[in-house]
Design a protein that fits this description.
Chain lengths: 284, 590
């Protein structure tokens, strides 16, 4: 997974293809959503779409969250990790949703997040505002990494921006409060197609190894706000997923960030949320 | 006032009424009907407040004051009394409908008139003070008896106890003789004793008191025995004085509900004779109602407190703080912003004030995102002048607030001897003077308005937790806590609640802006980061504090320690001050 010199152009191309496929899946499934469909059904549609398009394995199983679950709020009691799994909650008109999938194509991992609302722009004011403000994070994060800040400092900068905007950090709900994690190519064939806690067993094995090998170098493949993230990111690919919420609506994007010795840039700019912002910018 | 007064005598069946009109006859007419045992002079104070804008009319009801009336009770039925009222209305404003106001028996008579079939042509609006429609009252009492829930039984019993004098008035001879034999002389003293209002007795009081007994005898029993259904389409405003010993607010507010189309019930702080005690307040309520588009087609939108007063009818469901105005200082971030959002979510309009206009504007955006209205102000709470201007601006543009949250505050930490005079001035300016100014400027408005309200002051767990590193901060917050306690005791009589909130370690901006005195800029930055990190680990968000603030207002709580550490420290400060002193010596920033 870790790549000492940074990924080759060929590897970047393969990751980009995997990511494009994942976003195509989210957009296609998102466009076909109808009122009354359940999270489970939508997760299944994503799985089927990806399988049909040559995906052999998942970094983690596809997730779908509707309504208040996009902000990781449970109507009954506190949120637990079990709540991440798709439920029988039904989608309604004007309801926000998030689709999160991570197909692995020939070992090349992608991991994406796609936020939408049933009915499109203009049907949910809170969603539209959150989505508009989410754009700032896509600018902020590579800028700070490029400036040489440690992952922990960038995490704090993201927190400060969330506070300024008056929203809440929802990525702090993810296991380990992570806003991102390192990805690469998984070459191991063993345990393919097996899943534990929603993650591919291969993922967990790779991640476990990474935590140990990177840990020796004083680094972590997981990006959070604590002591373990007080270092600049290792060169390579990072899946970054700022997730912000306001009351019972949450939005996120997740895409791959390329980090080299002296630069940081998004792997692909031809993505649904980027096109949305460009369109809004053109209208503004 | 006297220069414009005209007196005329109106002959009616069985009597002659003494009528006074004031002001410009081309202005909208307002007819004020007095109660028992008063004369039209009871309105003098209100008249002088209304005379500028209205053509004001008063009269002595039949048999009272300068008006003549029949000798026996048959001449005093409500039918006759309502006829008199309509005759006066037709004479003073023959070609257009008028606004009607009644107090006590005047209100009972006016109810009779506005529930007649042709009332909509004659009256644009009706304001009732302390006098129910007798038919409505009878129906209301009966419904309480028919479905005797404990609540209904209690409210009926309360009203029955308050109506003891009605029974007395039905005893033969006694009550009438009593008025003649000295009750009239003692009357002002009695009223002064029971509700603190200073009445100016009319020279005819002994006669009026005695004659007025006939009003009761002619109407009470027949109406109670055979109440009629008396609906009206005229918009009605009912003012219910708190501390009214004769008409309970429950009766005044609930009895008309089934019989009115548009009913507005507003509580006013004062006793039964509030028209004498607070004429300016009553005139203001009348004016707000009459001039709004409820009573005057094409008029301005009703004031917020009127909208709020619209009695729940049908299925119109209201959010908890709908039509309430909440002022929050320091609303640009942290607890202030979270509080703004919490109240907005529950329907309130928010005045967002902060010294940082960019941050405040963002809060306004978020409040509007929740579908609430917000007003933006940039103000430095430590400046008395700025706060006065701010408060007046709020009153002019949004009205008198119902809830004021004095939240703006700054942090400061370090040794006492390193704290300079300017540091002290700064922290006391924001944390103490800010609260004083907020309570002073808005408290005065709330008192004047007479509808009560609530003031929330953000103190701190530091207010009762000594610490060697927080001398300045703790001192400022202890002052806020004590100020809140004193204000609570003082403002209770105005119906204004005061709460002090003691949050604890809340993850907000305050740690990023706290001044650590005696440290270099670099050291300060490091300490700030470390403390901010600790607060973040504590993971107690401002939204939870906001919920407790809303709850403090809802339940009128005196002191609210919020987070666990705030509650624990409060317990320690009470159970073992010695332990608290020992803990005060620890320096968590060092």
């Amino acid at each position: 997974m870790s790549n000492k010199t940074g990924p080759t152009p060929e590897a970047l191309r393969r990751h980009r293809d995997a990511q494009a496929l994942a976003y195509r899946c989210a957009e296609t499934v998102g466009a076909g959503l109808e009122a009354g469909v359940t999270e489970r059904e939508v997760a299944r549609r994503m799985r089927v779409y990806l399988r049909e398009n040559g995906v052999e394995d998942f970094f983690h199983i596809p997730f779908a969250w509707f309504g208040e679950r996009t902000a990781f709020r449970s109507l009954r009691g506190p949120w637990t990790p079990l709540h991440f799994f798709p439920t029988n909650k039904r989608l309604e008109e004007g309801m926000p949703y998030i689709l999160d999938c991570s197909p692995v194509v020939d070992g090349y991992v992608s991991d994406i997040g796609y936020a939408g609302v049933l009915g499109g722009p203009g049907t949910n004011r809170v969603f539209d505002a959150l989505m508009r403000d989410l754009a700032e994070y896509r600018t902020l994060i590579p800028q700070r990494i490029k400036a040489g800040d440690t992952l922990a400092v960038v995490y704090s900068a993201v927190d400060a921006l969330i506070a300024r905007q008056g929203y809440e950090s929802r990525h702090k709900v993810y296991p380990g409060r992570v806003i991102g994690h390192q990805v690469g190519r998984m070459t191991q064939r063993r345990n393919m197609g097996r899943y534990a806690f929603g993650f591919g067993v291969r993922t967990l094995e790779t991640l476990g190894r990474e935590i140990v090998t990177e840990g020796i170098k004083g680094r972590s493949p997981l990006w959070a706000g604590g002591r373990a993230s007080r270092h600049a990111p290792a060169p390579g690919l990072w899946a970054v997923e700022p997730h912000i919420g306001f009351r019972s609506v949450g939005v996120k994007f997740e895409e791959l960030l390329v980090v080299t010795e002296d630069d940081a840039f998004w792997l692909d700019n031809d993505l649904p949320h980027v096109r949305r912002w460009q369109l809004e910018g053109a209208h503004a | 006032m006297t220069q414009d007064v005209r007196t005329l005598a109106v002959t009616v069946e069985g009597g002659r009424l003494s009528v006074r009109t004031y002001g410009d006859p081309s202005k909208p007419a307002v007819l004020l009907v007095h109660g028992y045992p008063d004369t039209q002079a009871v309105w003098d104070g209100v008249v002088s407040e209304l005379i500028e804008d209205f053509h004001v009319v008063t009269y002595d009801t039949r048999g009272i004051g300068a008006s003549k009336g029949p000798l026996f009770k048959h001449g005093y039925t409500l039918d006759h009394l309502a006829d008199d009222l309509c005759t006066v209305a037709d004479i003073v404003a023959p070609d257009r409908p008028i606004h009607l106001v009644g107090h006590d028996w005047g209100s009972i008579q006016a109810w009779e008139a506005v529930t007649r079939a042709d009332s909509a042509q004659r009256f644009l609006s009706y304001t009732s003070i302390s006098g129910p429609c007798l038919d409505h009252a009878a129906m209301w009492t009966r419904s309480g008896i028919r479905k005797p829930t404990p609540k209904a039984a209690a409210r009926s019993l309360k009203q029955a106890l308050a109506s003891w004098y009605i029974v007395v008035f039905h005893l033969p001879v006694g009550p009438r003789v009593a008025w003649r034999l000295g009750l009239a002389k003692q009357w002002p003293r009695i009223i002064k004793a029971i509700e603190g209002t200073r009445l100016d007795p009319s020279p005819t009081l002994h006669r009026d008191g005695s004659r007025g007994v006939l009003y009761y005898r002619a109407n009470m029993l027949p109406k109670m025995r055979r109440p009629e259904e008396r609906p009206t389409s005229v918009p009605v405003q009912v003012l219910t004085p708190t501390g009214d010993r004769f008409v309970t607010p429950a009766l005044a507010a609930q009895a008309p509900v089934p019989w009115t189309e548009r009913l507005y019930v507003r509580s006013v702080n004062g006793g039964h004779w509030i028209v004498v005690k607070k004429p300016a307040l009553i005139a203001e309520r009348i004016r707000e109602f009459i001039q709004s588009d409820i009573a005057t087609p094409g008029g301005p939108e009703p004031v917020r407190s009127l909208l709020r007063a619209e009695a729940k009818q049908g299925t119109k469901d209201r959010r908890e703080f709908e039509d309430k105005l909440v002022v929050i200082t320091g609303a640009g971030s942290g607890i202030g912003r979270a509080t703004a959002l919490a109240f907005a979510e529950k329907g309130a309009d928010i005045v967002v004030a902060d010294i940082d206009s960019v941050a405040a504007a963002r809060t306004v955006e978020l409040v509007e995102l929740l579908g609430a209205r917000a007003h933006l102000y940039t103000v430095d709470v430590s400046s008395g002048e700025a706060m006065e201007k701010f408060a007046n601006d709020v009153k002019d543009t949004a009205g008198v607030p119902d809830i004021v949250v004095n939240n703006a505050g700054i942090g400061m930490s370090g040794p006492f001897l390193a704290t300079e005079v300017k540091d002290w001035e700064k922290i006391l300016g924001v944390n103490v003077w800010g609260v004083i100014h907020g309570a002073r400027c808005f408290g005065e408005m709330m008192r004047e308005r007479g509808e009560g309200g609530h003031i929330v002051n953000l103190a701190s767990a530091a207010a009762y937790t000594p610490s060697r590193t927080l001398s300045a901060y703790s001192t400022s917050k202890a002052a806020v806590l004590m100020l809140s306690e004193c204000l609570r005791a003082e403002f209770a009589r105005y119906g204004i609640g005061v709460s002090a909130i003691c949050p604890g370690f809340i993850a907000t901006n305050i740690t990023r802006t706290t001044k650590f005195v005696g440290q270099s800029a670099e050291q300060q930055e490091r300490t700030r980061q470390r403390i901010t990190g600790l607060y973040r680990k504590r993971n107690f968000g401002p939204d939870k504090v906001a919920e407790r603030i809303v709850d403090a207002v809802r339940r009128d709580k005196p002191v609210v320690p919020v987070a666990l550490e705030a509650r624990a420290s409060k317990a320690v400060s009470r159970l073992s001050p010695a332990l608290a002193r020992r803990m005060a010596k620890i320096d968590p920033t060092g």
